[in-house]
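Weekly modeling sync, notes
Attendees: S.R. (lead), two postdocs, one rotation student

Agenda item 3: backlog of single-chain predictions. S.R. asked that every request posted to the team notebook include the full sequence so nobody has to chase files. The rotation student volunteered to paste the first one in as an example of the format we agreed on. Action items at the bottom.

Example entry:
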Amino acid sequence: MNVRIRSGLHRKMAAQFFPSIIATCILLTLLATASAQTCETSTEMDAATRTALEAAGKRYFGMAANGDVFSLKQNAIPSLASNFSGIETAVTDNKANLAGAQPTIRPPFLLQVQGNAPIERAEFLCGVFGAQGQTANSAVFVINNLPPGSYAVVIADATGAKGPYTVSFVLQQMGADWKLGGFYAKSDQIAGHDAQWYINQARQYKAKNQNHNAYLYYQQARELMAPVPFMSTLQTDKLYDEAHAVQPPDIPAGGNTTDLVAGGKTYKLTTMFPLAVGNDLDLVVKYQSADVSNTTQAFADNTAVMKALLAKYPELRDAFAAVVARAVQPDGKDYGSLLMMKDIK
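Predicted structure, as returned to the notebook:
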């Protein structure tokens, strides 16, 4: 089950847009998967299950807010408990943010997988869908490599010492208990602004034909709006449509690379995304590198990429405080450099 933790930089890297779902695709997917995977919303599940899930969400939230890693591990599914370091780090990092906060539990979702083997890509269509796709109370979850069983997604909203937060739990039923299978905590604000602010900014950039800025700000808005990156809603689908309408063809996305020429060399960009660093919003750009062991050369390449990127798209200077360039070699090892906008000349 690949949803154990998404927080901090991992959360940023994991953020993606989910496509809008049209009625025909919904019907075909339902017919193809009804026997393997189902979802019940809060109004569809029985009262006892709903009460148990809400109680589990409040209990695990209390453990996280108190930094009680031991109790969370004791209540985790075996596969998670055996490799708990990621959860422990996330809980520790967010303890101060959640301390003293009282959670409000959203209506939970019950996800059930039938069969004898894990599903490579489990898709759960929750709630009522209309002719145009999702409705106000629907949701779609996409989880990879999910074994047969009963699962739930419980989302809590809380306001702590550092503002509003969303904390989400993926639970798995084991006997009569709902065990912890995933933990996700994130602020509802980035660099002091909420999702609606980023949507408004994106639309303003679009009006000025600054589509690179608009697309990246739509990305940030969607990241803030989705409680977990494997969930889409009517709101996130609408954001996808708005972002897709302005997506520049030269921004790397969907696994495709784009070329950037700098100093006589061609760099293959693999991804670009916004990243909050303190109260600033920075731009991260990753590109392919054969070898990053020579850090002097890697730093020079990073600097060349940053300069060329801003020379090609000067509009980025208005939207971001700094650029982070990361050279990534084939095995995933990378070397990164950060420069403030004023220092990139």
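Discussion: group reviewed the output briefly. Residues 2-35 have pLDDT under 50 and may be disordered.
Action items: rotation student to repeat for the remaining queue; S.R. to check formatting next week.
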